[in-house]
Amino acid sequence: MKEKIMYVCSSCGYQSPKWMGKCPSCNEWSSFAEETVAQKPKSKTAVSISSEPVSLDNIQISGEERYPTNKEELDRVLGGGIVKGSLILVGGDPGIGKSTLLLQICDSVSDCSSVMYVSGEESLSQIKLRAQRLNITTKNLTLLSETSLDSVIYHAKEQKPQIVIIDSIQTMFKEDAASAPGSVSQVRECTYSLMRLAKENAISVIIVGHVTKDGNIAGPRVLEHMVDCVLYFEGERHQSYRILRTVKNRFGSTNEIGVFEMKDTGLSEVKNPSEMLLSSRPKNTSGTAIVCTIEGTRPVLSEVQALCSYTGFGTPRRVTTGVDFSRSCMLIAVLEKKLGFKMQSQDVYINIVGGIKIAETATDLAVALSIASNYKNFSIDENTCIMGEVGLTGEVRSVSYIEKRIMECKKLGFKKCIVPKSNSEDIKIKGIEIIGVSTVKEAIDKVMN
């Protein structure tokens, strides 16, 4: 077979016979990498599950379609357990705890399922040492140290485990692909082969994917389209808390989160993340506010902190951690234009405590009030939770799932909730004071009084 040089986009997998600065498919810059491609007939990649079309009414589903992991936080993220025959992708930064999480999954599901753990990064003795540290002694777990995917598939078909874990997809390679392991074409072909293994043999396959410096899973974007479920493992390596977030799930809700704490014996579940995130918050201090967000179907209370400091430069700094930078700049502009705050002379720092990332607009009012609290040097009542979206005219707009949020606040002992006035009219929850506001100025007046 002849070989030729192709340039492949590392973001979307687009191929070109010459190097290009910008990918015409996904518009990414400097994403082309050189690969050696063998000229051969294209392999069949379509998944052949049945020989003929079947009516929806005639498809029989057994009662045991999921393998529960016996970990409440993980089952919440997966939608109730690992679906039989599914392909799951787990991504995260190096050293965040992906391998630890998967080894603990092996232990928790092995009581009712057989598991094969394949590592292309560690030897069998290294995996054994890690299993001993995590107190894993199950007998239904088989280990394989291998990088050839053809060999992995052969052993999987021979042993017929119910769950196969691949750590990681970037270390696997197919013999008939000419490029190096970890390249775009190798990752794509290996994932296609694992998808066929999962669908044709009803084996649940979990694959680990490394992430790039931008936080995206390394390899072509088509990788995320092929799998059934995409999970991101988030957190700082120097902090103990980790968040497992669903980005895509064909068998459950997306944007669910599971919270874990890294300990000497591995990852332990944090069943009440709100209590954890608020455990050591300061009292009677300016610049802090509590907000209730919805992560998937779960209400989570978080602490928003803001610090305003006189700038010594011509252009003030805006630094955000855990919230959207552009939206934070918009809220600062609203405070400056509508309330007369002189923010052009202030550096503003905004932080969500605990390393959690929030993309919901319901945090707008809490962020605005925390900035105002520090700027005006007044404290917000520690028993008050704030939620609401802020518009460009300074109005406070309604948020979804308001009763679920307020019930979570009441459960954790909060006495007051500042909410949009349009939401407050429909709330019939007793035992907690509901304060409806229409504008940011009205909300600031309420918390100052």
Please write out the topology.
Blueprint: E1 3-9, E2 15-16, E3 32-38, E4 66-67, H1 72-78, E5 82-83, E6 87-92, H2 98-109, E7 115-119, H3 124-133, E8 141-145, H4 149-159, E9 163-167, H5 184-201, E10 204-210, H6 222-226, E11 229-234, E12 241-249, E13 257-263, E14 266-269, H7 273-277, E15 288-295, E16 298-310, E17 318-321, H8 325-339, E18 346-352, H9 364-376, E19 384-386, E20 389-390, E21 396-397, H10 402-411, E22 416-420, H11 421-424, E23 433-437, H12 440-448
Parallel strand pairs: 6-10, 6-11, 7-8, 7-9, 9-10, 17-18, 19-22, 22-23
Antiparallel strand pairs: 1-2, 1-3, 4-5, 11-12, 12-13, 13-14, 15-16, 16-18, 20-21
Give a quick rundown of the structure.
With 449 residues, the chain is of the alpha/beta class. It has helices spanning 72-78, 98-109, 124-133, 149-159, 184-201, 222-226, 273-277, 325-339, 364-376, 402-411, 421-424, 440-448; strands at 3-9, 15-16, 32-38, 66-67, 82-83, 87-92, 115-119, 141-145, 163-167, 204-210, 229-234, 241-249, 257-263, 266-269, 288-295, 298-310, 318-321, 346-352, 384-386, 389-390, 396-397, 416-420, 433-437.
